[in-house]
Amino acid sequence: MSRLKVRVAGAWVDSDKSGAVRYNNTTVPYGPPGGLSYETIDWISPPALTVGDDSTTYSMGVQFSVVASKTCSGLQWRVPDAPLPAPTGGVYYALLFSISPAIQLVKKTFTPVAGDFQDILFDTPVSVSAGTDYIAAVLTRKYSFRAASSVGGFPLTSPSGNIVGAVGKLSETSDPDTVPGGSFQSIYYISPIISV
């Protein structure tokens, strides 16, 4: 595992964060020695993405479960190509909800980087339990999507099979506290980042 370098006071120093970055279409772990490795849903790289911008704001993502209890350290999102019009309110959010009971577990602001997979790491990792359904979502206006049938349909899984993506979730809302309620057979390229 390599060390992530961050710029502090004009110098490159080792980060104390563990996580993963997307490099050559592979998730590569980084962090301090002895840090955890992570995985995401295997989206199967698309030959082309459909991009939507309906001039409205959505909370969208994926409903998922884990086969064994793990830790969720953030979300991964395939950010659409530029330009990126801001959602209503001007703030992007990475969101994690449990479904039953409906509880918001994480709400984190972030700045998207257009045109590639982006890892958005939470300030504090969250425990996720087997047998519980969750939603990993972002609040955005512009988004990448494709029909789930183009990759064989749901469920979609991570390489180890521990993460099971059940269905796409979407709600038209500018409120980051709203749980995405609509279920769609669409992939929005949003995945939880789960410890291996």
In terms of topology, how is this protein built?
Blueprint: E1 5-8, E2 11-14, E3 19-23, E4 26-30, E5 38-39, E6 50-66, E7 70-78, E8 92-98, E9 103-110, E10 117-128, E11 134-147, E12 156-157, E13 163-172, E14 182-184, E15 186-187, E16 190-195
Antiparallel strand pairs: 1-2, 3-4, 5-16, 6-11, 6-13, 7-10, 7-16, 8-9, 8-11, 11-15, 12-13, 13-14
Provide a compact summary of the structure.
The protein is mainly β and 196 residues long. It has strands spanning 5-8, 11-14, 19-23, 26-30, 38-39, 50-66, 70-78, 92-98, 103-110, 117-128, 134-147, 156-157, 163-172, 182-184, 186-187, 190-195.
Rounded average pLDDT: 84
Helix content: under 10%
Largest sheet: 8 strands, antiparallel
Content-based structural category = mainly beta
Domain module tally: 2
What would you note in describing this structure?
With 196 residues, this protein is an all-beta fold. The chain has two domains: 5-37, no CATH class; 39-195, Jelly Rolls (Sandwich), CATH 2.60.120. The protein contains no helices and 16 strands. The strands form four sheets. Strands 6, 8, 9, 11, 12, 13, 14 and 15 form an eight-stranded antiparallel sheet that branches. A four-stranded antiparallel sheet has the order 5-16-7-10, with no helix packed on it. Strand 1 (5-8) and strand 2 (11-14) form a beta hairpin.
